[in-house]
Write a structure and sequence with these properties.
heterodimer; A: 378 residues; Butyryl-Coa Dehydrogenase, subunit A, domain 1; Butyryl-CoA Dehydrogenase, subunit A, domain 2; 3 domains; four-stranded mixed beta sheet; 11 helices; 10 strands; 52% helix; B: 397 residues; alpha+beta; four-stranded antiparallel beta sheet; 12 helices
Amino acid sequence: MDFNYTDTQDMLRDTLARFLADTYDFETRKKMIASSAGRDPGIWRALATELGILSAPFSEEQGGLGGGALENMIMMEELGNVIAIEPYLQTVVIGGGALKASGGALADAVIPEIIGGNVIIGFAYAEPKGRYNLANVTTTAKKDGAGYVLNGHKSVVYAAPWATHLLVTARTGGSQRERAGVELFLIDANTPGITRRDYPTVDGFQASEVYFENVAIPGDALLSGGIDLIEKIVDEATVAVCGEACGVTRKLHEGTLDYSKQRQQFGQPIGRFQVLQHRMADMFLEVEQIMSMTLMATLKLDLPAEERKAVVSLAKAKVSRSAKFVGQNAIQTHGGIGITQELAIGHYFKRATMIEGQFGSADWHLDRYEALTLPTAA
Amino acid sequence: MNLEFSPEEIAFRDEVRTFIAENYPAELRGKQDEGDELSKEDFLSWHKVLAKKGWVAPAWPVEYGGTGWTPTQRYIWSEETARADCIRLMPFGLTMVGPVIYTFGTPEQKAKFLPRILSGEDWWCQGYSEPGSGSDLASLRTKAVRDGDHYVVNGQKTWTTMAQHADWGFFLVRTNPEGKQQEGISFLLVDMKTPGIEVRPIITLGGEHEVNEVWLEDVRVPVENRVYEENKGWTCAKFLLAHERSGIAGVAASKRGVERIKEIAKTEMDDDRPLLANPFFRRKVAELEMDLTALEYTELRTLAGEASGKGPGPESSLLKIKGSEIQQRITELTLEAAGHYGAPYFRGFGEGDNEHPIGPEYANRAAPSYFNMRKTTIYGGSNEIQRNIIAKMVLGL
């Protein structure tokens, strides 16, 4: 057993942390969000070219640094530290992950473009009625000659307004909740027949409702692997979000601790009150457990599907619960000032709140864990 | 002892129900459910209907314009207004400064201010908290210095709810910097149009403009606008805080909130079943109803105590703690119900934006309401302070 990061991994973390410390202070982030694009494209370009770290989780043959899930975790944690609104999860973890797993000509063509910062991917999987069941898909992909025709509506597609490509789940056959027949397609975001309704999200991102109306796509847009592949990449994404939660909740805790040392009431810093000391001790315990669960799940992502799903669900359920606890108590300890747009703490709280439900709530994941591991009869 | 309504009470309930059905302003219907930000005119339109009927201040003594209802009738009233999803009236005049004025004010103050609170002519705001004085309210530093028949007020207040609309404000100010903090505070009624007052908006996490900073620079307030004796304002403040807390339980509104969650969860799908059939979600709704019922009957016991002559005491801290926690849990469950559609930030209100909602209508305000309602365990004396009050005043620790 070895819990040490390699020198390369330490360097990756340091490089990104230094870059974000210089470029991603809270006021700058605010300005990016308020700008018409809702982001600063220069940041993404710098991550790709100046720092060259979008290559971290790709193999050397693919032009990468030879990393994997652990590198994604490191990146996500650092991005979480500054509540970055960069499309790393969507583009590199999810899009890159799907291409790595499926391989082939499409992967060979697109991965270098991801690494180079030229491709941004939106993951169009959720539907208005499907909630967290990835197989509940009504969007259709009908075979049409060598290609397919897409029809349907995908909801809350993060990063879609910025995307060059969309990674879409669609049904080539079977009924609404059947596992067989659900496939994954990587398509040009500007294909005729795609329309979007763009909007900001409560956590500072941009997202869209994406509508497909007779969208003709080539046959090689299909990434082979079906629902098993989709579940695999969503599990990887779920753990990456846990990594982000490490950064987000650590900052919530640290910010609260700092504030409690400065804020004076009743003639002393509020951090002297035992009730708040215990609360901050409890927040600390939750942050530590988030980190433990994230690391555990990250290191077990390569297990066979059933075991992988079980550990990912256990981790995400814990992270969801802990993120809620840490976020709510950070605001409560700050008092009124925590509820204003002025302080960063409220914005960390918003992101923590969205992390709770992303790729499944605590209840949903506990349910999946139970179904996979706990027998119902003696 | 019995929990049944008498025939007279049932008749009263029917009267109230009919009155609301016939008189609640049509343009306000449904606004609560959407969680829209309400305008000054929205608040006043319902206020004025009730003022005309004489029902705007049920808790006031009859001589000042109250209804003379029994606690049971008041309970029925709050039940029925919540059941019909009526907007809540602004409390600053009706349940805060009004009772202070009729309890501690001079005959002239009563004659001048009470009718205008009832009619809705004056919109009030509360100048209590300061940047350095939140939970430790008695440490406040906004100072008022006597100059002939005026006080000259300088300082800064914060979290002043709806001050952007206010005609008048009631302010706690320091009139004596010496001695015990609580014994150097006075309670002033301030015309918000007085030169030297500046109201600056504070935007909160859901994007709302509800609260403000109020800056006071050489603001001249006539001495006749001081309520009660100089340096005895803390007595008024404590009296008011106890009143504020008893209204803060919000039982009737929370009942409506739970019903709304059930309505949402009946239609919202959780994969292959309605969300309300999801055992985890059902259990949370049931737990909410359990705690809300416990709160409701605790409030009823408190009200019964008040009817037999006990004023709202430190026990009202219990109502504030449990009531605020339940209000938060309701927004938490609503956000959970919204699923993916909790994420879009859609301001389809107040800005002339008539676009159709993104996803189900209720979902658009689910996250902003959840963020906003974190305030309930902070304002009106944070829940930590309420627990201190219980420990000290009730438990004698």
